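This entry is set out below.
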Amino acid sequence: MMPRIKIGIIGFGTIGSGVVKILETNGDIIKKRLGTEIEVIKIADLDISTDRGLNVDQNILTADAQQLVNHTEIDIVVELIGGYEPARSLILQSISNGKHVVTANKALLAIHGDEIFSTADHNHVSIGFEASVGGAIPVIRSIRESFVANKISNIEGIVNGTANYILSKMSDEHCSFDLALKEAQEKGFAEADPTFDIEGIDSAHKIAILTRLAYGTPINFDDINTQGISGISSEDIECAREFGYRIKLLAISKFNGESIDIRVHPAMIPQSHPMANVNGVFNAVRLCDDLMEENILVGHGAGSLPTGSAVVADIVQIARDILSGSKNRVSSQSFQNNEIKSIPIMNIKDIHSEYFLRFSVLDNPGVLSRISGILGSYSIGILSVIQKGRSDQGKGVPLIMMTHRSNEKDIQSALREIDDLDVTCEKSNFIRVEK
């Protein structure tokens, strides 16, 4: 009989309780596949009095995480409290104590990944973090193992369920951003403070992790150009539909062999593409490589059980290594530590794309020709134009354009010049098109 794998869990909230529930209800199938039991011998949380509806021995609960990271019998520490501190210190202390670690903490890995991964390598322990990106979608395992022979060149992800729910709601039910956000909060899909989700920060954390794994390079989080969805209007959604697109918050990483184009922003995707039809709180990640061209992974991106499932998968994988006597069988960073090299990040102004442009202008003769003239002076070709309705004197009317493929620097320069015109009523808006 193989020895039990003993784990300790820091954080008994939504994900932590989901992990315990999975181990409790599906323990038999896990044992049949692993060959032994996974035993939770300690759970640390500041709140140990609230009933989670689980059959947990009160004697294993503690409000002191130090009891867990210093416990001599624990093989794997599972960190599920999120944030930077004390999560960082607890993980590093666990690693120094020779314990393997599983975490869902994308923000921590995006900011402090270099320190955590190098410390784990030095101490010959494993780091599991499948749940940090895409919830139940096995995208990290796919990059590290399934696509180990593939040269990945392009990653596009819908990796934030809150933002995707809001944009789906606006698209399908023709409601405003504020109304969609309010409903997301009422249903528990959005936090009381949704800033990280709607401003693209959460998505940026995740694309930083995927980029490190795909190309073998550390990423300075501040180098990721990040734009959220709070500026997307119902009018943008409707115009996108008329042009044959849906708007999604995309996390993008492209490697051309010399530099990486990494960014997060709303993008227009053709309605015919599978990614455009990933709606609600679902996530999707599109990977392009030299062998299979395109792979799209779709699934639940958040939630107690989907994320808990990814956490348990990491626990089982590390447990298999423990039982077989293996160490660092699969590099946590996908590449060997001595092969991690810095790759330059492309300036956002150097990218090329098609663009959706929305202006609010006076309904006067000659306005279209003035704007077209400015765009033309920057070699920006106009693909199509929509002018919505007419307006009372002095009030702006929407003028919508789709451009041919253009340079970002030229687009931004042209829009600054257009915004200064006496016929422009408010700051213009643009959305990049991803095909």
Observations:
- The longest helix spans residues 304-324.
- The radius of gyration is 24 Å.
